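Folding Query — how this chain folds
Tokens — whole-number codes for backbone shape
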Amino acid sequence: MKSSRFQYHRPSTLCEVMDCLKNLENPRVIAGGQSLVPMLNFRLIEPDHLIDLSGITDLDYIKKSGEEISIGAMTTHRTVEFSEIIRTHLPLMSLAVLSVGHRQIRNRGTIGGSLCHLDPSAEMPLVSMALDAQLVITGVAGVRIVSIEDFCEDMLSPAIEPDEILSEIRFRPWQKGHGWAFTEYARRLGDFAIVAAAALLDFGEDGRISKASLTLGGVGPVPTRITEAEVELVGQRPSEELFARTAKYCAEIEPLDDPFVPGWYRQRLSVKFAQRVLREAWAQSQVGNEH
């Protein structure tokens, strides 16, 4: 199919974008277009005006300021993949981005576009949830900052108004020496993940876990932190028994269920993957501390 007719706009500044959102009827914003273009062609959405953000170079950056890493919403996955800042300070993201589609997808797809599309299986929302990202939303009424937890309202439904865009994503890196791990399962390389899991573990001088993050994607309508497991992990000495026990909390999530992937299968994978990423994060922290 072909998309319905629309008027195309390519602003070069945020101010121009706000003018478009304020004055145009039934507008839609496009970033990399890796999700929106198929939706247009299938006529799942029929905007009267398409606002292309690719001309706003001010939203394409990765920078470190003090203890914070900021990523512009128009930064592509490919840029994230090869960023030394990301590799050094956000290694979980550096690892997970390799599972985002194929190279052609990473060349065009943007981190902001992925977050705003909010597919349950997408890697960047999962990583952002695992790392407690803060999102800068710019709109006609001004700028506001929301947590990733508040941003992820429901499947394909971010907490962003029609006259707003996501402009920046902010992260606070975990301290040097922490462990991280990511895994996912898809039927074919580059397909949407059926289940994905990410873990981060930090340790005190006594070897006990001082901080933990365990997140699942593809299981529920939005990326899900397994907070019960995180609470139980903190203060404990890492072990296979501990990881097996805490991974069982994943079975308490009500899983997505469809004709292609039944809920019980997602549930089973989530428990296995949680145990795996916890084990790998622990092993990775030990390797990192050897150097």
About this structure: Residues 263-289 form the longest helix (27 residues). The longest strand covers residues 195-203.
